[in-house]
């Protein structure tokens, strides 16, 4: 199949430069938008061909493509999704404002749009970005997979595509691969082998919309490990997706649903999205974890440890966001003046000193921020029976929904803003381990409130059952068996097990052949298996830490991963900052390369 030309046909192709972007989803689109914004200032080459390589549609990519169930939603309000920069983004390139999803689609800003609508928005953004490129820059889409990149460090690269005998030649290559499939780890391989041997069903980590759920039979128990967004998709596809419906607060089964027994490390679903708008003064962030503190951590000769050196700053920053809002919006629930509290809070040298201050200044323990309790709400709790736990967890979810939709608890929204601020700094630190990313998603990237109300209805209907925290799965006696210390003595067996989470984006286990080739050739990787990139501009690092002059990478498979390729307006958008830095570095390289060739 030949490439699809998306812009003007160039003249004199033998003199033109070439940039190959592998991945045409939101990250690839964001990079093109930044190339268009920066090219008038930085690019004066002989003409540039941008080759987009992706089997999925440009803009939407795999995750947001139209060919998926319309029942699947985004987990953000339409007003909180943008692909355009604003003055809060710390970058060298120009701001090019544009509409949020709700402004573009003309929908209620508080709507949780379906993914097909978001895909349409992303396709439009892509078209606008291509149209904004200077005349001498042309974009081509190759609806294929990239298999490998070859070429010398100082010379042109070759990008080999599936089903094509000749490579694309590139002066620069940018990997914007998004979420990728991975081979099974040791535990998963054993479970899969056991399933094959005993005629069971084992669905490994996957993007749920791509999973074949047909083997999950009506009425039969299914064990589900994972309580995040992949689980929510699974819940939707196996209930409404099989003909069930909601009538008020009740779920009316179709009879085609399996019975889902779900658990996880925490044993509870991700926290509901906040259901009210911000009013009044925002917390002045960053305060205790900003650029200066991040610079100091990066400059330490012996490096830093996340738990020892970084987490205390995160705790203090999130606490500051919480109490700033509490004192500003709910002063009747505090015992001292904000100026006194702020001074003492800033001077507090450790967690114990802060806790003493908070106990004296905030009388109600419910108004105090306890990150450990938020992270592991079932720790130490034991229930006498499985049914008692069902009631208990329903109360927990009901309380979470009530709190997340009540402005009386607006410090929670302030903590959310603090999490975004902190993430923007932690991105600069590189590989800080996987725990933070999971904690952030659990608190800040949970499901829409309506999804949790559906979860409650499914629980009351008996279609969904809760297993508990630290859910353990054993393959024994020809079945899968699950248990949890939350309900001592209880276990449930099933002939099907679903791992409801995305695959880990590691170099060693990626099914993507291009990443595996990079790893084999010596690309650097972190302790968690992520591709190492230069903090400044996204250039791929080798195992000695040397940046490759002609290869860049952006996205979740790198140690520069961010909360997402798009973000809430006016929150700094670390992905936008990265896109801008990479686009500018690429344009300067190509400009200088053209100048050298002309000399």
Automatic annotation (TrEMBL):
Residue segments, region Disordered: 542-577
SUPFAM superfamilies tied to this protein: FAD/NAD(P)-binding domain
InterPro entries: FAD/NAD-bd_sf, HpyO/CreE_NAD-binding, L-asp_N-monooxygenase_NS-form
Domain FAD-dependent urate hydroxylase HpyO/Asp monooxygenase CreE-like FAD/NAD(P)-binding: 20-179
TM spans (from-to): none
Name this polypeptide is given: Adenylate cyclase
